Amino acid sequence: QVQLVESGGGLVQAGGSLRLSCVASGRTFSSYAMGWFRQAPGKEREFVAYISCTGTSTSYADSGKGRFTISRDHAKNTVYLQMNSLKPEDTAVYYCAADRRCYSSSRGNIAGEYDDWGQGTQVTVSS
Fold first, then answer.
1. 5: which strand partners?
2. What is the pLDDT of residues 13-62, one digit of tens each?
């Protein structure tokens, strides 16, 4: 089991930026695909971004394309989500997740494909 700890959330004004981090325990981080999801109050959890174990394959939800960038640093066992031009509708709890395969069979947007989840970090964007 991989333990995941997110950080970097907070309160930001619309148009601002945040960088979320997710640190993974264990020595197998480099073999896992990683994803970011979010859940707003009263809504279902939704896909945000995905990165393969090698970092060569990424995908994004339409809502974040051009604004969000997912990346990973194997030396630090960390996956990042850089979020720019934030909007009030980006307000949610953001979760990182680990898929114990290197590559997703889809585009990494299916929550059920992930094996381990973090506790989440709150992002609030004010208008």
1. 23
2. 999 999 999 999 987 899 999 999 999 999 999 999 999 999 999 999 99
Contacts of 39 (CB under 8 A, 6+ apart): 45, 46, 92, 93, 95, 120
* Separation between Cα atoms, residue 90 and residue 43, nearest integer Å: 12
Q: Are 20 and 123 in contact (CB under 8 A)?
A: yes
**What is the C-alpha to C-alpha distance for residues 54 and 7, in angstroms, rounded to an integer?**
23
Whose tokens are 């949610």? That residue is: 92
- Phi/psi region, residue 26 (left: phi>0; alpha: psi -120 to 50; beta: rest), is left
Q: To 5 degrees, how large is the angle CA 16–CA 68–CA 66?
A: 100
Helix (H, G, I), strand (E, B) or coil at 107: coil
**CB within 8 Å of 27: residues ≥ 6 apart:** none
pLDDT digits (tens, 9 = 90+) for 63-110: 999 999 999 999 999 999 999 999 999 999 999 999 999 998 889 999
Residue 111 to residues 13, 53, 62, 68, 84, Cα–Cα distance (Å): 29, 17, 16, 19, 24
